[in-house]
Design goal:
By secondary structure, the chain is of the alpha/beta class. It contains 12 helices and 10 strands. It is found in: Golgi apparatus membrane.
Length: 262
């Protein structure tokens, strides 16, 4: 009696926050099944026009007692998405994994830079994109900067969903000490506590935790995770941190989760 179920929880963001790591780690739980690809149903008009049955068809097969989770980080920053998800399921649980906003922006830049380099294309330095040359202020038109203004995006979601339907995951802590973060998510999803330290082992070569599903099956995240970031001018880092600071304070206030970001 395997069925394809619509997700009861979605990792809606944030890009470069650790969405893939979170999805793979939650998949350690016997009651969780994951959609392996980013489906981009709610943020892509063409996909959305295909309708909910198309979306369901992209879901893995599962037992009725299991919950399906998908992740598409573009959902968080795309304007139409909250209303579309609300129309599908107004009581869905929404997971947002965040990192310190300046680090996240640099990580975002690094991924794009790598893609350009693979195609032998040149790309501006991070400093040139993040700071407006005319005003010398932070360039909010630059997508990597805009994505890191978490509170701006969250406010749009809160027009549809109460704050209790969101759970904020600390993406920096998920890297260094994943278990407590995963236990908080288990609780949020009303799942029995099943993920243990046995399931997570530190791989010194990779500098990351890897996953142990059972005696025979282990899994580490793809090699593209944990890219080395380019050196960024410290004055630009400071300028960005100052810029994000008031937005971060508001984010803590709304979500009730505080981070020791600068």
């Amino acid at each position: 009696n395997l069925v394809q179920q619509l997700p009861r929880a979605i990792i809606i963001g944030v890009r470069k926050g650790g969405t893939r790591a979170l999805l793979e780690m939650l998949n350690l739980h016997p009651a969780v099944v994951k959609a392996s690809q980013e489906i981009h149903f709610f943020d892509n008009d063409q996909n959305y026009a295909r309708g909910i049955d198309w979306y369901r068809g992209k879901m893995p097969f599962s037992f009725p007692h299991q919950i399906t989770i998908e992740k598409s980080p573009a959902y968080f920053i795309t304007e139409e998405v909250p209303e579309r998800i609300f129309k599908m399921n107004s009581s869905i649980k929404l997971l947002i994994i965040v990192r310190e906003p300046t680090t996240r922006a640099v990580s975002d830049y690094t991924q794009v830079l790598e893609g350009k380099e693979r195609k032998n294309k040149t790309y501006h330095k991070f400093e040139k994109l993040a700071i407006d040359a005319n005003t010398c202020e932070v360039n909010t038109k630059y997508k990597a900067v805009r994505t890191s203004i978490y509170t701006k995006h969250l406010e749009r979601w809160l027009k549809y969903f109460p704050v209790e339907q969101f759970h904020i995951v600390d993406g920096d802590r998920l890297i260094t000490d994943p278990l407590p973060e995963l236990q908080l998510v288990e609780r949020f999803l009303n799942l029995p506590s099943r993920i243990s330290q046995y399931n997570l082992y530190f791989n010194a070569t990779r500098g990351f935790y890897c996953l142990r599903f059972n005696i025979v099956f282990n899994k580490c995240l793809a090699g593209s995770k944990g890219r080395i970031h380019p050196e960024v001018d410290p004055s630009v880092v400071t300028k960005l941190q100052k810029f994000f600071h008031p937005f971060n304070q508001k984010f803590y206030q709304i979500t009730g989760r505080t981070f020791n970001w600068p």
